[in-house]
């Protein structure tokens, strides 16, 4: 996992350097930040998924002997047509991770951020709705607190989180 995150970090560093080095128009800043966010989302696609206990139980009720943590966002339409039941999300929002990368602005630091901060989980749409109602749709600097407040209990990926400090 570390080697692939190095590739993503190497793509992010020149963008953070540009954002931190000179005056840019608001449009340029927006586009560069969106680019970092897109890279972080793709890095997340390669991370293992955890899930809420509720999502795990719901998936098990539909597909016995299978584990939702083995599924990817791209596979979701096959087991959740219309993406109506499940939501695959970043525990710590992409914008939070992006802003940490911009502030860090070093290759080694960004590699660490990607390894330690990208946490992907499957939750139920109903759990996502509670997060949103609690004001945590895109603002979760302390994701564990937000999940606890929403009464979402998280199971880690089958083989644990990469570089886990949890």
Describe this structure in words.
- It contains eight helices and four strands; from the N terminus they run H-H-E-H-H-E-H-H-E-H-H-E.
- With 166 residues, it is α+β, with helices and mostly antiparallel strands.
- It has one domain.
- It is globular and about 55 Å long.
Q: What class would the helix/strand composition place it in?
A: alpha+beta
Q: What is the helix/strand order?
A: HHEHHEHHEHHE
Helix content: 55-70%
The beta-strand count equals 4
Distance between the termini: 17 Å
Taking pLDDT < 50 over at least 5 consecutive residues as the criterion, the unreliable ranges are: none
Number of domains: 1
The residue-averaged pLDDT reads: 93
Give Rg in angstroms.
17 Å
The helix tally amounts to 8
The percent range for strand residues is 5-15%
Shape: globular
Give, in spatial order, the strands making up the sheet with the most strands. Answer: 2-3-1-4
**What composes the largest sheet?**
4 strands, mixed
Short structural summary:
The chain has 166 residues and is an alpha+beta fold. Helices cover 55% and strands 10% of the residues.
Task: Describe the secondary-structure layout.
Elements: H1 2-21, H2 26-45, E1 49-52, H3 53-62, H4 76-79, E2 86-90, H5 94-104, H6 107-117, E3 120-124, H7 125-133, H8 143-149, E4 154-155
Parallel strand pairs: 1-3
Antiparallel strand pairs: 1-4, 2-3
Helix pairs in contact: 1-2, 1-6, 2-5, 5-6
Main traits of this protein?
single chain, 166 residues, alpha+beta, four-stranded mixed beta sheet, 8 helices, 55% helix, globular
